[in-house]
Design goal:
4-stranded mixed beta sheet, 1 helix
């Protein structure tokens, strides 16, 4: 009897942790919008909230297509959405790698994925900098 109660309590604790970690969004919750027709009987649609983006440090980038395409690798999978953004200047290119995910339960796996961005002008002699850390990024041609 006690063992059964202990197992139930453990299961409830795990379920509570999973619900808290995986389904609770931040902010005021889900966004709601009406259908374009707005007529009677039209139900509002709910977009799932997303967790705020997390900036991931970048240590290395592959430069391709004559210096126009930059690619890095990071852990992805599940519901993760990855974004590589570039801010270009005459002397450097500042890269930001952002990971976001919608709220809810996601498949529990990770894999190494490539994330790319395209520059407006070839990289040339400009320095690559991680915008989130301010550190230089190692590049190699491919």
């Amino acid at each position: 009897m006690r063992r059964e109660q202990g197992m139930r309590l453990a299961a409830l604790a795990i379920a509570g942790t999973l619900l808290t970690c995986c389904s609770a969004g931040t902010g005021s919750g889900a966004a709601t919008s009406s259908s374009p027709s707005g007529g009677a009987g039209s139900a509002p649609t709910t977009a799932p909230p997303t967790y705020p983006g997390v900036k991931v440090p970048i240590t290395a980038v592959l430069v391709q297509d004559g210096g126009l395409k930059l690619t890095t690798q990071t852990l992805g999978g599940g519901c993760r959405r990855l974004s590589l953004q570039a801010q270009e200047s005459a002397t450097d290119v500042r890269l930001t790698l952002t990971v976001t995910r919608p709220s809810g339960i996601c498949p529990p796996y990770v894999t190494l994925v490539e994330v790319s961005t395209t520059l407006h002008a070839p990289l040339g002699t400009r320095q690559l900098v991680d915008a989130s850390t301010g550190r230089p990024i190692t590049s190699r041609s491919g």
